[in-house]
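Schema walk-through. Below, the input block comes first and the output block second. Nothing else is stored per chain. Lengths vary across the set, and this one has 1459 residues.
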Amino acid sequence: MADRTAPNCHLRLEWVYGYRGHQCRNNLYYTAAKEIVYFVAGVGVVYNTREHKQKFYLGHNDDIISLALHPERVLVATGQVGKEPYICVWDSYTVQTVSILKDMHTHGIACLAFDLDGQCLVSVGLDSKNTICVWDWRRGKVLAAAPGHTDRIFDISWDLYQQSKLVSCGVKHIKFWSLCGNALTPKRGVFGKTGDLQTILCLACARDEITYSGALNGDIYVWKGINLIRTVQGAHGSGIFSMNACEEGFATGGRDGCIRLWDLNFKPITVIDLRETDQGYKGLSVRSVCWRGDHILVGTQDSEIFEVVVHDRTKPFLIMQGHCEGELWALAVHPTKPLAMTGSDDRSVRIWSLVDHALIARCNMEEPIRCAAVSTDGIHLALGMKDGSFTVLRVRDMTEVVHIKDRKEAIHELKYSPDGAHLAVGSNDNSVDIYGVVQRYKKVGECVGSSSFITHMDWSTDSKYLQTNDGNGRRLFYRMPSGKEVTNREELKLVQWSSWTCVLGPEVNGIWPKYSDINDINSVDANFSSQVLVTADDYGLVKLFRYPCVRKGAKFKKYLGHSAHITNVRWSHDYQWVITIGGADHSVFQWKFVPERKSKETLHIAPQETLIDSHSEESDSDQSDVPEMDSEIEQETQHTYRRQVYKEDLPQLKEQCKEKHRAMAMKKRERAPASGMRLHFIHGYRGYDCRSNLFYTQTGEIVYHVAAVGVVYNRQQNTQRFYLGHDDDILCLAIHPVKDYVATGQVGRDSSIHIWETEFLKPLSVLKGFHQFGVCALDFSADGKRLASVGLDDNHTIVLWEWRKGEKISTIRGSKDKIFVIKINPYMPDKLITAGVKHMKFWHRAGGGLIGKKGSMGKTETMMCAVYGWTEEMVFSGTCTGDICIWRDMFLVKTVKAHDGPVFSMHALEKGFVTGGKDGIVALWDDTFERCLKTYAIKRAVLAPGSKGLLLEDNPSIRAISLGHGHILVGTKNGEILEVDKNGPITLLVQGHMEGEVWGLATHPHLPLCATVSDDKTLRIWDLSPSHCMLAVRKLKKGGRCCCFSPDGKALAVGLNDGCFLIVNADTLEDLVSFHHRKDIISEIRFSPVTGKYLAVASGDSFVDIYNVMNSKRVGVCKGSMNYITHLDWDKRGKLLQVNTSVKEQLFFEAPRGKKQTIPATEVDKIDWSTWTCVLGSSCEGIWPVVSEVTEVTSACLSNDKKLLATGDDLGYVKLFKYPVKGKYAKFKRYLAHSTHVTNVRWSHDDSLLATVGGSDTCLMIWSHETEGCREARQCDSEESDIESEDDGGYDSDVTRENEIMYVIKALSTNMRPMTGVKPHFQQKEPSVDERQGVVRGSRPPVSRAPPMPEKLQTNNVGKKKRPIEDLVLELVFGYRGNDCRNNVHYLNEGADIIYHTASVGVVLNLTTACQSFYLEHSDDILCLTINQHPKFPNVVATGQVMLVICQPHLLLSTCGKP
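--- output ---
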């Protein structure tokens, strides 16, 4: 079998030819070390001209399009394009990431700029609003964001002489921004009469509020404040693309190919016309210029970089060049020399020296070039053209040999035969032509078997055969030189190929992912001697495979750098290098090949860091060569925890139902009951799908979770306290290093993490907004300030929080595979690890992002747990095969066999470790995992006498381990919590059912006991009195869904899922009798009252069988229900049965024969029922919620005094109603602790306790019933109903009116006042139509009171001279907004002034002079006002307004009316 691992050799990027000049500006700078920094494709390049060396920054995963240099000139910020683009700030010296800024922009990042002291970075997005963001880049936090402009923004700059001021410019606008608080406010530049309104391409700020900007027509516009004060006409012949400010003055560069230098007052110093110099050419256009001392760097449209020395300006040095804009497809390597030839749609063919990293020849052709080949002797270079012709040149002087055109479609591939006699030319006309080289390229043959364009070709070593690939994915063979197709594959058996560049064929099967379109790999090339294959694809990835690679989905190493599709890849003649070329980025990459033996030596050199790990072994295939997964882990990975309906959806659902029930709200409804309930005890612990979720607190109590509850258990008193802040399943729990705070994460559409303290069970912080579907792992940092969390979304997003502030610090997509554990490095809180299915990743924080590398181990294992060791680089992880992996940094040092089966939990001690596994053994280890010091097996034989229950089986799978207080705490998959004494005895503290739904629940008729039966195939008896323990358990052959005690409490009937039922002795649980008459599940079972003579057994096949218990015979069958039976009750006399079915039928049958009866609703209430557990009928009509289409009431139970009805529903709520519950939508008290559906509720014999079971959360909860007198109000005790009724105390008419005012409509109507831009009193030009409407183009407001504006009238009135608008000044405002606002008049300045608001104006009225002063920055009605009472902030006022977009409240100093 072929080796499917990735090859051991690798590639290292050595040189990139090219510079991105097209569609980018201002992207070329000198660093502090006098190196040159720029970008090409997806790579940041730092080029040292003196040593002719390049360094690469590879942190991006798509085209970089913007770059800014930090004022200290060491750090660089680069921005990329993409669906979720991000900004990287990196060090130009080490080329390592310093910070990642993400989650704000879409489409791409067009411009970047650092402020003067380098603390803030501003970025402009490519989205429709051209959003501008200001970042605190070290922390990765957004300080402010605002829509930039409706059209493209080309440049942005900080005003280096005024704090918090920015200038942006672009298509027909320039804007002056001020940053105030977290708001960016723009003022549009006023062109006035001084110059024409036109597109501004670049700008630079000077002192005294002066801004210089370069315009599209070649003028320089000079601004003072927001007004244009003068223009420098004809500074350049056409558009000025770049302006750079330095100590000596300003440099500008334009489309006319000139560089101009200006002094600090913008007086011209000199002009350098690059077109006139030795290296110049017609059409040279400058895109970027950087002036430092006497050196000027110039970047051009055609991907060249020049360096000009000012005193010798006629001789610029050409220090870098690449292909111009246009696709780059042609690549060939010289057969004997280290040369590469490339040809592109820019019609040039270029020869590069791979040793000197330089362009050594260039020749322009008539047509775009699509492919190239060099003859075997290295004399001829053949070029295939886009128009179907091909040209042969002499390599030494680039003169033409022949030019032949036999085809109309492009030539996509050509190759010389190994003996040099023939040239095969493959075209998009579906054919290959063969030409004789010696006969001056006379055509000697033609291959016409293909039905699609030719993509790849290879000759055999003896030059007798040719194989081709075509666009249809067919592989064909031809005899040479005649071109006859070979149909008999036998004769090809022994053919050896001189090269392998085809993408089809058994040798390269493995390069294709399992499910892939056949055309996304563009090029391959095999290195026969090292047995490796390199491929290039549409996703910008270069991959290394073993050769031959026969089986699909082989492993590979991948390298990122090219941004879009890579069109071609070739090995150099001596296999030292790999050359790749990018189609759209038209760059040439040269990679050094590092063979296996060298790879080992270079390991200690830090691999170049990339976001996508460049030594990744990952392959897209299902890794069938990984051993089978353990069943438990398999099960756990399948869990998605997705819900049909989340509790978060309830308010919305209720809103939708409201209309239907308006009428109901008028009626008087039943009040909620006076007495309430309190959660008393929970039997259960979530061990079946969670790990490491059990800890000792500071005070020696035990904290864990089950269902939606955080539990703090006191083992001395056997009592529990509860944190009830969650509303759905908790999936993970982490404890603060001081052991007094706990973090828990839950399931939810927008799932939340709660941090709460264990003493008073109060929440300290709730974190939401970043995780979908659920949170599956948490960890605190060693100082307790940070928290790391992992979500259950498809990318398993990792978030690092500063939890007290509720701020996210960093986020990153974790892994496609499930993550089981996250741990923050205790010594360095910026580092963390994640481990999970088939991976172990080491992360470090960079600003708002995290950078991860996969741990390097031989075969990928699934990790179940991990801890940091005694130094910052040591990590220990437990695998699914029972090994402990010991890591130093990211490298696997060794593995130790610890358990049979997976290691689920481990815990680090001062001196050593403790581990627990599926084998049910707890092992203590020394600090290096050299020796196992002691093992404890969890067995029934060693259970201590004080245990609160019984161990179900020996050696249960251990899921959580924790140490403290001289004991080891163990949580098992079976839902047990045990305490292991160091000397050996084991005490069982808490237990619950195992995985599987719990439905069956019955309380004893006269003792504080209850019985439960579950899908986990056990029947259990629980003590409800203070001992709170499991008294007996019995394993059943099948799971069960219902049980019932006989009236004397001696027998217990249990219905099972396969249609049989048993009656067992209630004390010993031994069988008394069993029956099997049905095939379907037994859904409910009931003894008749008083003597218990009859037993009614309801089944899923919609029958109720009635048995005589005394003689064990079936005496009747109740037929006639449409669907399966859900509930069953007897009347007091034992003569009548009430039945509910799943289609909401309420039926009555006579016992014991089972005859169906029809009873009118009025009579039903008069019947004296022995129990009431039904959910239908007029006496419980009010228990059904408004959203009953979505959620079912699954169970109900009437207390023995017939006053209270308790219900359980599908959303996990337990509710208490006053009985009878007549009339719809009664009021209730609602309690939340179960996570999903509450399957059953039962009152104890004396109504003092209520037992509830929650289906899949497996727990049995005991609630104590607190009557009116003795209970204090509790937070969980909400008195609610699903709809508000009028009798709740009607509103006063004023309040009603104010309550119903909709400000939205006002805000949506077209505003006469512009909502963005400059206030009229600052404006000197007419606002454009867009501004007048105050809306983004294409989003007219939904409610408009104005006639629609004609679309086509948007002229820019460049030529018309307009009268300036006279300025109006607001003098007096009559009015005060009292009709719908409150608390909005305040004294200021110790009673000298009053402040209030009306319309959109804040008014300060001086009581002595009666003068008003105004705050006018709002753009719509102000609705509220408050003043800061703190002596430190006198006269600070906040006002809030209505608006279409949510507006920030304004803070203003009332003395001067300034924000």
